[in-house]
Each structure stands twice: as structure tokens, then as C-alpha cells.
Amino acid sequence: MFWKNGTEAAIGRPGSIAARLTFWYALLSIALIASVGSVLYWVLADRLQQENDRLLAGKIAEVRAVLKLHPNDYAALREEVQHEADTLPGIYIRVLNAQEDIVADSPTPSAIFDSGETFANAPHAIDEHGRDWFSSDGKKYRLMSGKFQEDALFTVHTAMSLSKEAQLLAAYRGSVLLSVVIALAIAIAGGYLIARREMQPASRLAAIVDELGAGQLHRRVGDEAWPLELRPLATNFDRLLSRLENSFARISRFSADIAHELRTPLHILRGEAEIALSRDRSNEDYRACIESSMDEYDRLSHMVDALLFLARTEQPAAQIDKKWLGVEQEIGAVCAFYQAMADEQGITLIAHGTGKVLADSGLLRRALGNLVANALRHTPSGERVVIEAKTLRNNAAEITVSDTGCGIAPEDLPRVLERFYRVDGARARQGQGSGLGLAIVQSIMHLHGGTVSIQSELDRGTDVTLTFPAAAGTA
Length: 475
Ligand code: ATP
Ligand code: MG
Description:
Layout: H1 7-11, H2 17-69, H3 74-87, E1 91-96, E2 102-105, H4 111-114, E3 131-134, E4 140-149, E5 153-161, H5 163-198, H6 200-211, H7 231-277, H8 283-313, E6 323-326, H9 327-345, E7 348-352, E8 356-359, H10 361-377, E9 384-391, E10 397-403, H11 437-447, E11 451-457, E12 461-468
Parallel strand pairs: 7-9
Antiparallel strand pairs: 1-2, 1-5, 3-4, 4-5, 6-8, 9-10, 10-12, 11-12
């Protein structure tokens, strides 16, 4: 009755937990009370029957004792039977001799003794186990007979009305039934209230979660005293909040960085335009102004391209076209592209290594290109830049771009992969890039499930290593 059906039920167990708990409490309570009540009823009924049988067997034994004591004195026997009837109403005794004549009888013998089949085949000895019999008017009796040989053969039939006992048992049954109904009502009402009360922390947690907006991401809920079952939820929720807080902080820092990065070239462009427009100038002057603006336009478009690329690669649904590529061919193509620049700077560009890598060729070349561009920018003339590829023992591919340039200071090293991070100071050469190159390399490696690691020492050089994971089935 508490379940919703359909797809919701198929997903899990929707509906109210309190209602479901109540249903099970109630079911359990009924089962427990009904079974305990039934067992007690059965024990009581069995006990009563044993008592009745003992009583009837006692009567038969008493009749036998009287007959033994007064062998031919039926008067004594009748007196005894009369006495029994007086003291124990509801007990009937009839004594027959060998000829089946009645020698003694209770004063108000009922139809029990006259019903033909009641005492047919009376056992010889006293039968300790009586049997139930119902009269034609529906009344219940317990019957027991005994046959014994004293001076002559006697048969004693005893009967006992069970009307009182039946009433007692009926009352008992009624009580058990009433207890079940009351317990059911209590279990439903109490169980529901308890379950509702115990579920309150969950509602409180839901209310807290509901209150949280972008401005409250610093809040944590795990410190409160949650019930054991809710603790993992609260802890996981806190972790989610920290991740969101970090992402939020990163995004807002990123937006601020973008604004900052765009502002400088825009100011330069505006300043140049203002100067050009401040008075009439010759065509050559205008031309020079436009030409000098071109550098800033290039910078801006390089940055916008890089940002767009990062935005695309970081989309959760970003897809890449991975193929098995010959590493030699890929690093060769990157070297060929940068050869002219290297020659111009007097730097030797060396590539070696073979093997295969499962990657997107365009992205791989872009990542390697960024590394080679960095290496060329930070390496003095006469030095070397080496691209080396190797296949590791676990079949992962590794490509390292090494230079013998100025290196990166240890305090900058952990941050160079961040967007817009550029090393300041005298070492940073003028006309440096936008600080997005290594961030792009990192996103590309994320897309491939690989990693970027940088080793660098000031004035000795830098090694940047790209590790591509071993493709499934190749390790
Ligand atoms: P972009 O690549 O977008 O043109 P960038 O080269 O300045 O700009 P990154 O490639 O992300 O940006 O590099 C970040 C910083 O790390 C650089 O400013 C530079 O100081 C430092 N760096 C990167 N590669 C090297 C290297 N091989 N040797 C010394 N410093 C390096
Ligand atoms: Mg760079």
C-alpha cells in the first residue's frame, strides 16, 4: 500500500522510507504477537487437556478402589458416584457390569452415555488419553473409559463437559486477537512517528543543501553530529562542496585572468590609435601605426585561439580521434616545422626514438609544438633541444622534450602548468607568450588519459615528459 509502482519502483525503492519502515514494523509485530499468542494458546489448551485426562483417570481409579473395597456393595459405589457428581458438577460417571447392566450412574446422565457409538470399544485398562466428543447440540465433552477385573468385570465410562473450558479458550483467543489488533494500531502509529522523527536529520540535511547557493560554497555540513547512516552522505557532500568551491574559484580566477590579459593589448591598441588620431599624419605614419598594431592583434588572436581550444578540450563530451601513430613520423613533423626557427636562433634540434603511440595526431603535434616552442624560447644560441621517444616496459609511450636552457625555478615549477602563469623576472625573455602553452599541453594529455611531468633545474635546462598510457591489450 505504501509503494508506488511503475518505473520509479524499478529504479530503486522510491516512496516514503518512514512508511516502508512502518509497514515492516507492523508486519513484524503482527507476526510476533500472533505466533507468541498461538504458542501460548496451544500450551494452555494442551495443559488443560492433560489436566482433564488426569482428572478422569483419577475418577476411574477411585471407582475401582471402591469396588475393590466393597466387592458386592453397589450401594457404596452409587454413594461414591453421587458424591462425585455433587462435588464436581460437569463430571459424569457410569459403571457397568459384565452383562452391560448399569450398576451406578451419575444423577443426571446426559445423552453421552446413551449415544451408541460414544463408548464403543472401551479399552481394558484405564486409558490415560481421553478423547473429545461433540453432542448433537454442539457441546464438547472429554470422554474416558476403563475396564477392569475385580470380583467381576466392570466397565467405567467417564465424561466431562468442556463448556467452561471452551469459553475460557474462546476468551483467550479473543484476547490474542485483540492484542494483535492493538499492537497493529500501535505499531503503525508509533512506528510511523518514530520513523518520521528519526528521518528528520535527513530532512535537515536536505534543507541545508537547499539553502546553499554559489555564495555559500565555503560551508561544510560534515562537522555536525549526523546519525551514522547520514555521515557518509554529509562527508561526500562536503567533498562535493570543496570540489565545486575549487572549480568556482578557478573559473573566477580564470575569468579575471582573461580580463586582465585582454586589457593590456587593448590598452596598447587604443593608445596607439589615440596617438595616431591626435593630429593629422602622413600615410606612412598611419601605415606604421597599423603595422605596429598587428603584433598586438596577433597576440590577441593567439590568446583567443588558445582559450577556445582549452574550452573545447575541457568539455566533458570532448571527443578525440585516436589512432596508432608512428612516433618517429610525428616528432619528425614537429621538428621540420620548428627547424627554421631553431636555425635562426642557432639551436640544434635533434629528434630520435621509435615506437608507436595511440593518439590524435593533430593534438599530439600541437602539444609537442608547444614544448619545442618553449624550449627554443628559453634556450640560448649554440645549445641543443632534443625530442626523444621511448616505449616503456608496460608499453606506455613516453616523449620527452629536453633543452639546456635557463630552466625553471623550483618555486615556479608547480605553477607553470596553470593557465596564464608565466615566470616573471629577469630570466623571462621579453615578448613572451600568453602563458597558455603548457595548460594546453596538459589538457591534451588529459584527453589522452596521459600525464605531463616537468623536471627542471635553473641554468641547466628543462625536461618535459609526456606519458601516454598503454592501450588496453598491449601491456
Ligand atoms: P604560450 O605558450 O601560450 O605562448 P608561454 O610559453 O609563456 O606562452 P607556457 O608555455 O604555458 O606559456 O609556459 C609557462 C611558463 O613556463 C613560461 O612563461 C616560461 O617561463 C616557463 N617555461 C616553459 N617552458 C620552459 C622551458 N623549456 N625552459 C624554461 N622555462 C620554461
Ligand atoms: Mg609556451
